[in-house]
Amino acid sequence: MDQEKTKNTLSRRQVLGGTAAALGSVTAIPFASAAESNPANLPPSVPEWTPYLGAGVDVNPYGMPSEHESHVIRRNVEWLTASTESSINFTPLQDLDGIVTPNGLCFERHHGGVPEVVPADYRLMINGLVDRELIFTIDDLKRFPQVNRFHFLECAANGGMEWRGAQLNGCQYTFGMVHNVQYSGVRLSDICREVGVKPSAKWVLAEGGDSAGMNRSVPIEKILDDCMIAYSMNGEALRPEQGYPARLVVPGWEGNMWVKWIRRLEFGDAPYMAREETSKYTDLMENGKARMFTWVMDAKSVVTSPCPEKPMMAKGQNLLKGLAWSGRGKITRVDVSLDGGVNWKTAELHGPVLSKSLTRFTMPFEWNGEEMKVQSRAIDETGYVQPTIQALQKERGVNSIYHNNSIATWLVKSNGEVENVRLG
Ligand code: MTE
Ligand code: CO
């Protein structure tokens, strides 16, 4: 990290002190690479990679990104990582475009490490208040009608370190516990029909096959509404980290409920009061009481460029980029402020704008080297408006680490550096 920072700072100084400041508009060459490039490769010369045959097709049986993109990786925070088996890493949102998170960059959260599930020995067991208690193989699941849907998964603890103040200086560390992929799988309502759910069944306990045996209670209405058992993400089999060979998908609801390596669904008439919904994943309020079953992820957004990892590289015309999402449906509008929330402009939403999915927004702007306080504010189809941290704290205090969907502020300094700050 430190090395990258020095590199960025250097090239930025060269930029702002030199040619770019005078240009005041976009040129065809990105300023950063212009500063580091080899003149022998630049027009009108023939670059060094042109006169020779390139690598053959069988060099990469499974393709990897360019080595020049090797900084685009999941990262963890050392002091949040007591042991890697029960830990978290973060999606590099600042380096992505569009709305799809590449499979290798989806953040991971495990309570007991990644189990090595053998697909031939994988089973999904259904028991409890059903007419037929059944056990499915992965091939059985794949014979059900298929659905293909984009959804975000956000950990309830995303931004959890920022409740009391700006603490982690990075878009990746403050917003990166979210990913968005296209899931292929089976509607749980179809599986329910197959097993014949009894009218007395009101709750489902979803249980994981990892060493943590992670389990959560899901109300039957949600199970029947839009839950899935997914076996693919972005067209290929789920990655081991994401629950291979099958996971529960609970669109719009907190990540903890999306049980990975799912092995059992038990239908019952009451919530199971599992550890993850009593001692954990409850939100401690100011009066000492805790909110329980706070499932929905409220509307949220983040500016992914500029941000602490993406400093301003040039004056003149620039493009602000960001992501917005809501667990209640579609994003209908995103406003952007460059002055800490005094004035707002509506950003452009890029399709597809899907329900309970990340939505991309951009906004062109001019930068002349003045200080900026960059914010974004998402609004969803229910009319819900992403709150300020002050408004959220007034409702919920500062004791919880979960469900912080407040507006963040990136302070852009006149030298182009960007810092995560708290206003007011
Ligand atoms: N499922 C099992 N079986 N074990 C786990 O540790 N972690 C949960 C959930 N499902 C977990 C699990 C949490 S807290 C989150 S935020 C999401 O998985 C993370 O999913 P991901 O690793 O695909 O990002
Ligand atoms: Co989580």
- Poorly predicted ranges (pLDDT <50, ≥5 residues)? 1-34
Strand order of the largest sheet: 4-3-12-7-8
Determine the oligomeric state from the structure.
single chain
Distance between the termini: 29 Å
Looking at the structure, what is the overall shape? globular
Mean pLDDT, to the nearest integer, reads 91
Structural class: alpha+beta
Total of helices:
9
Q: Please bin the fraction of helical residues.
A: 10-25%
- Summarize the main sheet: 5 strands, mixed
Q: What is the rounded Rg? A: 23 Å
- Structure summary, number of beta strands: 23
Strand proportion: 25-35%
Distinct ligands = ligand MTE, cobalt (II) ion
Q: Could you walk me through the main structural features you see in this protein, from its secondary elements to its overall organization?
A:
By secondary structure, this protein is of the alpha+beta class. The protein has nine helices and 23 strands. A hairpin with a 7-residue loop joins strand 17 (331-337) and strand 18. Residues 1-34 have low confidence and may be disordered. It binds ligand MTE and cobalt (II) ion. Cobalt (II) ion (CO) is lined by residues 109, 155-157, 255-256.
